[in-house]
Amino acid sequence: MASALSPPRVPKHKGALPSHYYESFLEKKGPRDQDYKKFWAGLQGCTLYFYNSNRDSQHVEKLGLTAFVRLTDEAPWGSSRDPGFYFSLVLRNQEIKFKVESLESREMWKGFILTVVEMRVPSNLTLLPGHLYMMAEALAKEEARRTLEVPSCFLKVSRLEAQLLLERYPDCGNLLLRPSGDGGDDVSVTTRQTFNGTSVVRHYKVKHEGPKYVIDVEEPFSCASLDAVVDYFVSHTNKALVPFLLDEDYEKVLGHVEADKENGESVWVARSTPGAPGPGPAPASGGPKQLPPVPITPVASQERSAPLLNQEENYVIPIGDAPAANYVNEDVPSRSRPVLNPRKLAKVQAKPLKPPVAPKPEPKGLHGGLAKKLAVGSMQTLFPSTGLADLTAELAEKLQRRRALEHSAGHAGDQ
């Protein structure tokens, strides 16, 4: 029985190995190391990168060369039988010792380091023509890299604009590089500090002489790149100067993409921060204030009012807003109900209240529409209070009797 074929193994994707000007095995000993440690090292730009293996794409350590001072040869470390060759890299803040397996490897490392630091091919080393050609290629690559790479604090602004930026955004730094006002490839450095509550602005000139940048101070200092110029100002001021880095604009309102339920299109929805809860809903922006909702309280069966009056009747409805008042356990009449004379209301309330009387049958001869309106009006209760409902029924009954008498008298006169 034939077994099912297993799918072929797909090799795992490995990251591309980094490209270096020069690379080989190198043993390193730092100021705090007890002994040398072997790495696969590579030089790219003004930085040495150290890897655990020559197959690794991610470095484990790196060492910048912008603070370069000098390179020196070292005597063999340990016994006289040690076949290694030693040299030392002296920086402004530390000294690193290296060990290689051959004299050629030591000269190669020294030659490439001097090439990227001094931006020239050294001529005082024991090198073959092929080695010198490799260093010339590395020099051309480094020159091309430096022409495209500038520090983040380099801005193409004028002298006045640089001062305004440092003054307006003090939290973003106080050191800024800009093109020189004299034209050409020279660079200017603008700094701003506070002394006794007074703002002090200074400008420094950096001359671009060949591959180097020379800081024009009392003791001119030569730098291999603009990054080295920035490092010089930061290190020589005890980090009082901070490179200027303008922060990007950040959003203040949280938003998200949401699909529209009607057409399915994506829309951007921004949620505003809810404010502190208040006694009522917030008014709409740019419009009138919204009134709070009126709670509906269920009414007992014996207190339920009759249907509302016919909307065709002519009643006086107040136009102005009623004064806002907080009433406790009181019935407030609706704004759409008729307004009664307060004097008549007081007199009627003094009389003993009578139970509601059912309306009499429609008298013969009355107009159908008028009788219908009177019958509807007599069955309606305007207020939820029992006394006011009885009063309304009594008034409606008297009005009905009066109109019936007037109609009967008029009919008798016509005959």
Automatic annotation (TrEMBL):
Map out region (Disordered) in residue numbers. Answer: 269-292, 349-368
Instruction: Enumerate the UniProt keywords alphabetically.
Output: Phosphoprotein, SH2 domain
> What SMART domains has UniProt attached to this entry?
PH
Q: Which InterPro entries match?
A: PH-like_dom_sf, PH_domain, SH2, SH2_dom_sf, STAP1/STAP2, STAP2_SH2
Residue ranges occupied by any SH2 domain in the UniProt entry: 156-233
Q: Which PROSITE patterns match?
A: PH_DOMAIN, SH2
Q: Does the keyword Phosphoprotein apply?
A: yes
A GO term, aspect molecular function: signaling adaptor activity
Positions of the PH domain: 19-118
Report the domain of life of the source organism: Eukaryota
Is the keyword Transmembrane in the record?
A: no
PANTHER family under this entry? SIGNAL-TRANSDUCING ADAPTOR PROTEIN 2, SIGNAL-TRANSDUCING ADAPTOR PROTEIN-RELATED
Q: What is this protein called?
A: Signal-transducing adaptor protein 2 isoform X2
Species assigned in the record: Ursus maritimus (Polar bear)
